[in-house]
Amino acid sequence: MKAAVLHRPGAPLTVEDVELDAPGPGEVTLRVLAAGVCHSDLHYMNGDLNVRLPAVLGHEGTGVVERVGEGVTRVRPGDTVITLWRPRCGDCEFCTTGRPALCSLGRVQAASGGLLDGTSRLNLNGEKLHHLMGVSCFAEQCVVSERSVLAIDPDVPPEIAAITGCAVVTGAGAALNVMKDATGEGVVVIGAGGVGLSAVMGLRLVGADPIVAVDTVDAKLEKALELGATHAVNVRTHSLVEELTRISPRPMAWSLDAVGAPQTLAQAVEVVGTGGTAVAVGLGKVGATAAVPVNPLVQQEKRLIGSLYGSANTPVDIPKLVELFKSGRLPLDKLLGERYELSAVNEAYAALAQGATGRAVIVPGPKL
Hints:
Blueprint: E1 2-6, E2 14-17, E3 19-20, E4 27-36, H1 39-46, E5 55-56, E6 61-68, E7 80-83, H2 93-96, H3 105-112, E8 122-124, E9 127-131, E10 141-145, E11 149-152, H4 158-178, E12 187-190, H5 194-206, E13 211-215, H6 218-226, E14 231-234, H7 240-247, E15 252-257, H8 262-271, E16 272-280, H9 294-299, E17 303-306, H10 314-326, E18 336-341, H11 345-353, E19 359-363
């Protein structure tokens, strides 16, 4: 099969002929239909985040089950599924308390670059390749644990299904799960990429007002307004603090940092008023830290909290998000950006790095 391989940080992906082993016990083979172009992969490509190399990248995907290994019970051949970059074992303290985003098996995959048993199903010229977060869907096929897939309605467009498994559940999930008390409250969303735009849509469902989108690219801010933001601020040309004062006489009660840079996280804490909450969802470079003034944090009782994968109970929340899309209440079709063939994966990431609007999608097979 064809797959996009990262051999070393700073190098482009190479689309190569890769051998894929049969699924082992508890595993399934997927024919990949679509894979989202997520900024996290760019972090791995740049070396900002660590991954065992060489590796096949891609973690935000959807596909059809073609083959199942021994003991698989959650899906069967022919099922359409969304991939989950965090497995859900169902047994650890986080899964049993409804927080599978923190499943302990996620650390096994991250540390080993393999599947849940720590081994790989990918080979290139006799050399083992590593998996990315147990998925590796920048490929025509992938083998994943049955604990890392979720069956969905096959009528959902593949591009929509793909982005729902990461960008949408991360952003909209944070809004619906962490910021559900923001009804009628002002919110600042820093970063209008796929996750930030998904957060805007979720906050619209929550009833937050005003919803202020912040970015440095006008086209992305226009998209944010289309998807539910009430105001947009380009911080290259305007002072965010001054614009927030103009937008609302009341201080903002919430903020969400979808970027993950030290300066944006500090800004997220700065812009909320007394008693306000800043939610961090964007990942940054390994070891990065943010400077947060101590006295305002204490004297104004501000809060800074993290949210991984939308703090979602994925088996429950992802189907809800899909149903919201099908009912027209979550316009994910408007979130989509450009479509690329697998051979153009580097073009997709060059466009992302330059501020492309919407969530781009890789289509490994014929264009959808």
